[in-house]
Design brief:
Blueprint lengths: L1 H18 L1 H18 L12 H6 L9 H6 L11 H11 L3 H15 L21
Helix pairs in contact: 5-6
């Protein structure tokens, strides 16, 4: 009797897996992406997304015109890199696309031990022979 129950359970799980295959695949893919980001790996851009999607998300400005420089010129890439991070900054800090890009860039410079105001390394061993 227990063998029959196990066999029935396996068939049921297989059926559920087949029916919800795409949802399970997407869920496990998202889990893997989040895990990779947590441990410091960054995925290469995929074909998901487009510059049109970026415009709809508000990721364009007169200073960074996606339509003029990417769409009209036939750029085949999958949209902007790091758009999730920029969207988070815009949402959390209530700022514009240009301000969010600036904040992200300043954070990146600080992370790499570079003064965001001057662009000079903050390493005490840094030596410069030019004028300050």
């Amino acid at each position: 009797m227990s063998t029959t129950i196990w066999l029935l359970l396996c068939v049921l799980l297989l059926a559920v897996g087949i029916i919800f295959r795409k949802r399970l695949q997407a869920a496990f893919s998202k889990l893997a992406d989040n895990t990779n980001r947590l441990i410091g790996y960054h995925l290469l851009p995929t074909s998901a997304g487009s510059f049109e999607d970026d415009i709809e998300d508000g990721l364009t400005s007169s200073n960074f015109d996606i339509e003029e420089h990417n769409i009209e010129e036939g750029d085949s890439r999958a949209g902007l890199k790091n758009k999730e991070e920029i969207l988070k900054i815009m949402k959390r800090q209530g700022c514009s696309f240009d301000e969010a890009r600036l904040i992200r860039q300043q954070r990146l410079l600080k992370k790499n031990n570079i003064d965001p105001a001057t662009g000079l390394p903050l390493d005490p061993k840094f030596v410069s022979f030019g004028s300050p």
